[in-house]
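Reminder to self: tokens first, then the designed residues, so the page reads top to bottom the way the pipeline ran.
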């Protein structure tokens, strides 16, 4: 082997010389990578792969928060060896056991959700780059820390749209590696699937972050704006006298062209444009700086899709990607509503008319020759949809097309019910539909009307009805008055919390004087109607928690008003502070909620963020009181979002349907060996309270969820004032909603100053009589008893490497 030399030489006048060029390409890549990587300190795991966090962080979490598995059945039908019976600790033909199979099933849902957000981000990023250019700057408001999730996971700190490509390539590479592990004969250990799921969750928050920063920057969305405008929401907010365009999905790119065409052709006042699901939020954010009174409206969440179609109100429906019902086309076709597919991910078997003339497409759709079409040219899409709405509206109005029964049809349907109960068994919300129909048959419609809000519009009841009653349409008929009055307000998505807000509020969160961040996110698969999330939000806002919301839950919170006629968005400011209600925006805006907790570590505590996930997560787990709630989570994306929070030490509560995700992470709060950490000052071991006692769990009712979430905001580093405030709320909420005080409140008491002020003396007496603690009654001080000692300067950490001298 020849010796490698460095330096320079001239090849002029050389003859018969072979020159071998070896690593120039690789070196060039490294130089490019160095330019993209953030200047300044770098942690140990930039561009982490699936093994990077496994031993030092993920297994540490999984040792304390042990997986609790809830398989859907005893069989595995994954490959052609099967189906295999895995009950009673049996193994399948491939050798996998029930734990490994269930871990794989949960992991599959997480990577599916991650892929969905990442693909959304890639599509959106490439589109805005094609329009605005690679050098278009990222602009998110008055912040220097623009991309906390990207920076933590990759070490990159992009400043332009073009520089966002590198983190997207990283996510896509790692997703491919993760997907390979679910093939038969690959991973079989449940704990390693859990570790991989946590890693995938971290990738999910990178993909979401890129998605939202790209659209915020390019489309002039609100930028860390606590006073983002209020948007009309609800089916009753639509002016039925005008043509109506309804957009469904999550990717707003194509819809922006429709809105531009409407503005350029003076159509804004002549027709309505409204959205369902997250596209609705992003429509209302578009060009926010140009209009303080947005005209795009929000019809509602995913649960309203079938109801809105059956109402007959839309004249054109445009779908993009994610959370689009599989029967949108068939249901729309019955009512002569053309469906335009604007994204390759959902094409519905429709003919592709991307290359066709707009006027010829309108003629095809108007005549009914085709029920809809694929249109991937956004310039044409922008022209096609408004023109089509103008053409279809008078035709449909003249025919009075709707799926809502007439009075006579309604009476016939409710009289047809055989009370067999099949619909009750099929209903995921266990609504007593037979009783409601029986009441209606007797002339009392109140029960059916009330069902309108609880019904998630899944249509499972109709599919089992032997009398072929269109039950959803019957419910909507009974609720016509309520629907007409369904008008609320929701604040447009404001984007991330600014650096200045983090600096101002960080101390309150770390010390505990702001009791915690409550993040209400996710889908509308609620167990008992939309008002649950409103009631949960209202309770925490009254107690000065910081409420961060997004997606369908953020919409539903805005649907209810107090006795003065005000929504929560009107009553509470949109600031990142205690008592603030900030709507970050659509699903991809969830990255700003996790990012806020991460920025507390990076900005307030000055921790290195780049390539340093474990240390940032360790900080949030021990110091930043936060808890997520996906009360109506149904999708794989919700699983990915929640798992991404979990790897950062942020616990999440799911509604009762959440057990269908197949896995929870719950600690043994009675096992004292699980509740020990290091004191970073000297590496000594210190006891901590069992807080938080879960990373992922479910609650049966919203009344159970509220005290559970309050408790989950307790952190080992709370100072005495903060601990006293948190204990006060937790104990009061438990008494208010569960009728009992928690039986383990004493485990969180380190000193008498930790006790709720109003009950301090009575609680001291109970500690003495019930727990045997020694109390100095003259000074009203605890002398002995607590196993956890309070030291205001202690530095709790799970990572030995962060200890002094390590």
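Designed residues (806 positions):
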């Amino acid at each position: 082997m020849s010796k490698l030399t460095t330096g320079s030489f001239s090849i002029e006048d050389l003859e018969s010389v072979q020159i071998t060029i070896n690593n120039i390409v690789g070196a060039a890549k490294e130089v490019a990578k160095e330019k993209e990587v953030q200047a300044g300190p770098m942690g140990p795991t930039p561009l982490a792969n699936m093994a990077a966090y496994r031993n030092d962080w993920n297994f540490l979490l999984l040792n304390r928060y042990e997986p609790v598995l809830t398989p859907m059945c005893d069989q595995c039908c994954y490959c052609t060896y099967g189906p295999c019976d895995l009950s009673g600790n049996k193994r399948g033909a491939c050798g996998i056991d029930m734990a490994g199979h269930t871990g794989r099933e949960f992991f599959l849902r997480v990577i599916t959700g991650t892929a969905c957000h990442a693909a959304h981000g890639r599509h959106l990023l490439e589109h805005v780059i094609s329009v605005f250019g690679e050098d278009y700057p990222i602009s998110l408001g008055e912040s220097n820390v623009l991309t906390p999730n990207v920076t933590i996971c990759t070490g990159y700190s992009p400043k332009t749209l073009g520089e966002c490509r590198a983190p997207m390539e990283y996510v896509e590479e790692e997703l491919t590696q993760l997907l390979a592990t679910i093939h038969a004969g690959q991973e079989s250990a449940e704990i390693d699937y859990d570790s991989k799921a946590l890693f995938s969750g971290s990738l999910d928050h990178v993909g979401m972050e890129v998605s939202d920063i790209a659209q915020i920057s390019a489309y002039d969305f609100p930028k860390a704006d606590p006073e983002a405008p209020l948007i009309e929401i609800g089916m009753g907010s639509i002016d039925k006298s005008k043509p109506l365009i309804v957009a469904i999905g999550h990717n707003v790119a194509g819809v922006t062209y429709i809105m531009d065409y409407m503005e350029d052709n003076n159509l804004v006042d002549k027709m309505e444009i409204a959205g369902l699901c997250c596209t609705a939020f992003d429509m209302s954010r578009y060009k926010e700086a140009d209009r303080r009174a947005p005209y795009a409206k929000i019809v509602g969440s995913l649960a309203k899709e079938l109801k809105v179609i059956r109402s007959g109100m839309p004249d054109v429906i445009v779908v993009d990607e994610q959370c689009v019902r599989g029967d949108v086309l068939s249901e729309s076709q019955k009512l002569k509503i053309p469906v335009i597919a604007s994204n390759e991910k959902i094409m519905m078997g429709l003919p592709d008319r991307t290359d066709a003339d707009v006027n010829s497409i309108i003629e095809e759709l108007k005549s009914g020759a085709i029920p809809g079409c694929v249109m991937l040219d956004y310039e044409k899409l922008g022209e096609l949809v408004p023109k089509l709405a103008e053409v279809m509206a008078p035709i449909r109005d003249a025919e009075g097309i709707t799926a809502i029964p007439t009075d006579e049809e309604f009476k016939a349907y409710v009289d047809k019910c055989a009370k067999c109960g099949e619909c009750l068994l099929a209903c995921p919300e266990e609504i007593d539909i037979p009783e409601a129909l029986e009441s209606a048959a007797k002339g009392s419609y109140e029960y059916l009307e009330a069902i309108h809000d609880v019904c998630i519009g899944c249509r499972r009841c109709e599919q089992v009805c032997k009398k072929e009653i269109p039950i959803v349409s019957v419910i909507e008929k009974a609720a016509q008055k309520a629907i007409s009055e369904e008008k609320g307000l929701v604040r447009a998505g404001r984007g991330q919390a600014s650096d200045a807000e983090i600096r101002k509020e960080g101390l309150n969160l770390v010390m505990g004087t702001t009791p915690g961040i409550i993040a209400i996110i996710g889908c509308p698969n609620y167990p008992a109607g939309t008002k649950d999330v409103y009631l949960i939000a209202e309770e925490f806002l009254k107690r000065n928690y910081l409420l961060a919301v997004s997606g369908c839950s953020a919409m539903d919170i805005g649907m209810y008003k107090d006795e003065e006629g005000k929504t929560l968005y009107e009553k509470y400011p949109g600031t990142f502070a205690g008592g603030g209600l900030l709507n970050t925006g659509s699903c991809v805006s969830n990255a700003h909620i996790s990012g806020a907790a991460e920025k507390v570590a990076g900005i307030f505590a000055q921790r290195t963020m780049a390539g340093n996930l474990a240390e940032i997560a360790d900080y949030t787990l021990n110091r930043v009181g936060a808890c997520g709630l996906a009360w109506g989570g149904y999708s794989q994306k919700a699983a990915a979002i929640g798992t991404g929070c979990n790897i950062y030490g942020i616990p999440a509560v799911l509604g009762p349907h959440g057990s269908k995700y197949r896995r929870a992470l719950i600690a043994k709060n009675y096992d004292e060996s699980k509740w020990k950490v290091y004191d970073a000052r000297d590496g000594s071991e210190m006891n901590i309270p069992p807080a938080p006692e879960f990373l992922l769990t479910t609650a049966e009712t919203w009344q159970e969820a509220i005290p559970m979430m309050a408790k989950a905001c307790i952190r080992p580093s709370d100072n005495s004032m903060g601990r006293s405030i948190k204990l006060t709320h937790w104990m009061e909420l438990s008494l208010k909603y569960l009728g009992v005080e928690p039986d383990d409140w004493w485990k969180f008491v380190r000193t008498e100053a930790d006790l709720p002020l109003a009950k301090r003396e009575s609680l001291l007496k109970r500690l003495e009589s019930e727990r045997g603690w020694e109390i100095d009654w003259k000074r009203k001080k605890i002398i002995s008893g607590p196993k956890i000692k309070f030291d205001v300067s202690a530095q709790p950490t799970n990572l030995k490497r962060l200890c002094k001298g390590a």
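Confidence is low (pLDDT under 50) at residues 1-14, 17-37.
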